[in-house]
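note to self — DONT lose this again. spent like an hour looking for the file last time. sequence + predicted structure for the chain T wanted, 272 res
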Amino acid sequence: MWKEKYYELMFSKDPKKIDTIKGFKMKKTKIPPLYKYRMINEFSIDNLTDDTTYFRKATAFNDPYDSALTTVNESGYEHDHKMPFIKMMAEIFDVSVDQIEPIMNGLSYKETLELLLYNYSDFKNKPELVLSLVEKFLKETELVFGEYNSSISELYQEKAFVSCFSEDPTSMLMWSHYADNHKGIAIEYDFNKLNIEDEALWGLHPVHYTDNLLNLKEYEKVRRQMSVVTLASISKSNEWSYENEWRMVILKKGDSIDFNKQVMIVSLFYRL
């Protein structure tokens, strides 16, 4: 499928595979008519009048995982925080770091905690209490891990302004969700009329549907060649694949963005 090849050319983890010029030329030949579902209000009327499109920050999306990214998975989080964890456990259980470090090699937090509690605490004869304490600790650790990832995500999402489009103007679900429960409009845009040097055209991408959050660490080698923020902004759960979505992503500082006269409106769809 051409989209997979496109993602490889534009957003590969391998720096040798990235070729943005080739990827752009491929996309330019594949852009279909695109549609934006809207309710009828002063803002959508202004878009129609001025040939513009509406953008919103990635932080404003309803789906918390939309445009989200992570820095590590939980096993990676454990690895990066291994020594602080060992030192903390050594202090709590009044044993040396040299005693705990060999124990933890190859074990998860959960397994290490259980082993320490059974062997270095007064709870070794109370297995039910051990399990309860371990579960409480893991929940607190998971909460810290989640909050850390959320803060990183929001930091990146703040830079991205996104405008969403669909290849399909006849989706009943999208008329319901995005067009005021079938009372709104679907605006058709023709991006092929934009000039090749136009920032809006370079910022337009087909959405990448995936079941995995984008992991920043996996893209460390290509951070100077491609925009991780853009890739995160066009990444969405497979559950939304029925939307056949494209997104225009513009990276700016500030609270608003406007592309006046840069997007050509072709026609208008409505439902009676």
